Amino acid sequence: MPKLETRRVAVKNFQRPDEIREFEGKGRVEILTLAGRDVARGTFEPGWRWSRNVKPIAGTDLCEVSHMGHCVSGRLRVMMEDGSSQEIGPGDTYAIPPGHDAEVVGEEPCVMLDFGEVGDYAKRR
């Protein structure tokens, strides 16, 4: 794990992300890098599903990224490879292990902040 810089405050804003990764339609993820760590803001539009809109980019059958974050708005259903599922909504803070699919629930975009292992999320290989 990278060592955090303890003597300097780092401030960035999603108005000017370090990187933008577009999905295969229906949204994107914006990345900020601070103190050697990545923070992501994902915007998932109605109709978005990982297996349709990110799988072609990731090249894996399921999302193999570990997510730790907070849902700002909208709803997302996460389906684990064991068949279990969980819905995440506004105000929920979550930890999602690797091995999942996900989809937007309803007609409102889902916006999530992710502090997990997002360095390679939706990154073309």
UniProtKB/TrEMBL annotation:
Cupin type-2 domain segment(s): 66-115
InterPro entries attached to this UniProt entry: Cupin_2, RmlC-like_jellyroll, RmlC_Cupin_sf
A Pfam family recorded for this sequence: Cupin_2
CDD domains named in the record: cupin_DUF861 (cd06990)
Source taxon at top rank: Bacteria
Name of the protein in its database record: Cupin domain-containing protein
